[in-house]
UniProtKB/TrEMBL annotation:
<comment type="pathway">
    <text>Nitrogen metabolism; (S)-allantoin degradation; (S)-ureidoglycolate from allantoate (aminidohydrolase route): step 1/1.</text>
</comment>
<dbReference type="InterPro" id="IPR008979">
    <property type="entry name" value="Galactose-bd-like_sf"/>
</dbReference>
<keyword id="KW-0378">Hydrolase</keyword>
<protein>
    <recommendedName>
        <fullName>Probable allantoicase</fullName>
        <ecNumber>3.5.3.4</ecNumber>
    </recommendedName>
</protein>
<dbReference type="Pfam" id="PF03561">
    <property type="entry name" value="Allantoicase"/>
</dbReference>
<dbReference type="InterPro" id="IPR005164">
    <property type="entry name" value="Allantoicase"/>
</dbReference>
<keyword id="KW-0659">Purine metabolism</keyword>
<dbReference type="GO" id="GO:0006144">
    <property type="term" value="P:purine nucleobase metabolic process"/>
</dbReference>
<dbReference type="InterPro" id="IPR015908">
    <property type="entry name" value="Allantoicase_dom"/>
</dbReference>
<feature type="domain" description="Allantoicase">
    <location>
        <begin position="33"/>
        <end position="181"/>
    </location>
</feature>
<dbReference type="GO" id="GO:0000256">
    <property type="term" value="P:allantoin catabolic process"/>
</dbReference>
<dbReference type="GO" id="GO:0004037">
    <property type="term" value="F:allantoicase activity"/>
</dbReference>
<feature type="domain" description="Allantoicase">
    <location>
        <begin position="202"/>
        <end position="344"/>
    </location>
</feature>
<comment type="similarity">
    <text>Belongs to the allantoicase family.</text>
</comment>
Amino acid sequence: MSSHTPGAPVFAPPAELPDWARRSVDLANPRLGARAIAVSDDFFADVSRMLNPEPAQFVPGKFDTNGKWMDGWESRRKRTAGHDWAVVRLGVKGVVRGFDVDTSHFTGNYPPAVSIEACVSESDEADALQAAAWTEILPATACGPNSHHLFACDSAQPWTHLRVNMYPDGGIARLRVYGRPVGSLAAAAPGALLDLVALENGGRALSWNDASFGSSAAALLLPGRGMNMGDGWETRRRREPGNDWCVIALGAPGSVDKIEVDTAFFKGNYPDRCSLQAAYVEGGTDRSITTQSMFWQTLLPEQKLQMDAVHTFTEQIAQLGPITHVRFNIFPDGGVSRLRVWGRLDTR
């Protein structure tokens, strides 16, 4: 084999996520519309790669016109005062719970420290971002080579944009921004039919009993259809009585007109049946709401499912009036790509 032929890629291992990250959404996921909109320097590796939802990879022997190809954001070696930075627009406005600053495969070229600032801006234009009030939500913090760095954040305000600072230069393979979306359903037209559980509308997966394969139950709420079998919620094979479930908070209270359950790509492992329960909940914690959910009223009685198909339910839906939460049950186990709960906002 020629010495110029790239070798097989080496993929970074996943991070061992703390609970606050596992129960959150990556607000910087391009699937939600996140993107890097400005950067001080990305000579060696384009800043857009930093937001790629796939694991970072290292390809031995792969070079481009500027040098070694790296899977992430990498600036050139700084020979002047200052530091490098990148501005990222979050996919949805949200409250940030913490970060994974991943330097996988960056060994002699990682940044010794990073900090992160945040702002709220209605525009991506440079003038608007310059005029915005930026708040430091992660102070300058040391980083090491070839590692996931999990940093908690105690900011309670929702943000739209982040500025990632590297001191003084270097490379970041991936940036994950774990948080809770804050929807904009209040601006929806009166009476409009909306997906009340969509992430972009503020829907949130509160809890689930298992997610052994694929993503967490939050993947059910992502935009679009799933891209593959790993892009959904899949539980282990159940070897005991019972069924699997997840509890989801709507972006805002509303009445349900239509439910869609999409088993895209799930063929030999789709659930046999599904059902939904629902309630209008005021107060409580994620844990207490999960406990209550066992006793909620039936919104959709058990329905037979098929492999790799979109199932639409309308006439089968019970008229419960406005609700705030649903419990999605699958029998006995399996994988579902997407859940849509279409309805109209409660105007009370």
